[in-house]
Structure formats: structure tokens, C-alpha cells
What we know:
single chain, about 100 residues
Amino acid sequence: MTVDEIHKQIVLPAIAKAEREIPNLNFKSFNDTTPLYGPPGAVLDSLNLVSFVFLLENFIESQLKKKIEITTADVLNGDRPPFANAFALSEFLAEKLK
């Protein structure tokens, strides 16, 4: 899948699902460059990040029949954090799903 396909078919639907299922999330002013996790103004705090990763991994498995692990130590400590924004997450997942 291309980055654009991952973005439209996995990341954006998973974000919509997270907003419905994870309490206290507010993606109302969200766009592709809004920080998902990390800096001030990010949508996810550390507790919500754990819930979102669990939801995202399960969403990917249900949609693509592939099981992936998103939060390995090398990923979280890498140069390009996958949760910088939605597009960074799409790029990261496109690499993981090759």
C-alpha cells in the first residue's frame, strides 16, 4: 500500500474510531500536521497514546489481516517519531507494512 492509501484507509479511519472510543480525545481541530503525541498541543497524552496504539494495531489487523507491533524501543527512540503527526504515522506504517 502507498502512504496515501495507508493514510486514507488506515490512519484517518483509526483516528475517527479513537475519537469515538477513547474518552477525552478531541480531534475537532485536527489536521495532518497536528502533533499526535509529544509537544504541547498534541492530541494524545501518554495514557491515550497507549489506548490509541492498541486500537490502531487491532484496526490494522482487522482491516489488513496483518499483525504489527508499533511501539518497539527502536521506534520510540528513533529519529523520526511515528506520532509526530498523522502523515508521519502514515509514512511509518507504509514502511512497516511492506
